[in-house]
Amino acid sequence: xxxxxxxxxxxxxxxxxxxxxxxxxxxxxxxxxxxxxxxxxxxxxxxxxxxxxxxxxxxxxxxxxxxxxxxxxxxxxxxxxxxxxxxxxxxxxxxxxxxxxxxxxxxxxxxxxxxxxxxxxxxxxxxxxxxxxxxxxxxxxxxxxxxxxxxxxxxxxxxxxxxxxxxxxxxxxxxxxxxxxxxxxxxxxxxxxxxxxxxxxxxxxxxxxxxxxxxxxxxxxxxxxxxxxxxxxxxxxxxxxxxxxxxxxxxxxxxxxxxxxxxx
Length: 264
Hints:
Elements: E1 2-5, E2 8-10, H1 23-39, H2 45-57, H3 98-113, H4 122-135, H5 137-155, H6 159-173, H7 177-186, H8 193-213, E3 216-220, E4 226-229, H9 236-262
Antiparallel strand pairs: 1-2, 3-4
Helix pairs in contact: 3-4, 5-9, 6-8, 6-9, 8-9
């Protein structure tokens, strides 16, 4: 959720692909079962009534989402026009980075176009678009990769991603740079894909450490309380195999995204 006005907040709900055939019935089911019964009770008490009123007064808006990596523009594209914003480069809305990328693109392109003597001359404009494609990479690539990687990490039901999720939260609990630097990446203050790479795979390795060393739930006591214990040495061989699978999963999530951003 994020604020869109002085007294308005927009809330996003993720619906897994593929969508059901009966969207009208599905919207009603989402409204009743998911939002009223599951989401609103988790909100602060002061927000329960406003959220219920918003559901009654406003319709649910459906918005498809996709990942569109940027493509070079200029000599390879139609003369006299170029794309900006989500029409050219789209990422997952989880991190809310779309407007950040769009404004950054506008600022960089404005500065580059100042050197063009005649905007009607495509031979002058095309090379600028090529330079712009690479000049925007530090910020845009960081936001693009982070948004999709975070969604893959927290939105999927996979036991290996579950290990990475747990390790991610444990990593944040370390404090210091383990929180400060990821937050600067999330806020697009740090424009450094290499910093994102370092933290992502540090989290992956720390998740494996957590898998071996931290207590995990093994059952419940007679009074219904969860029971936790550390893994025993005889469990380590299976955990070692799982660790390889966890690290492989981290590579499958991150490296294809990185390649889409660094390739020409």
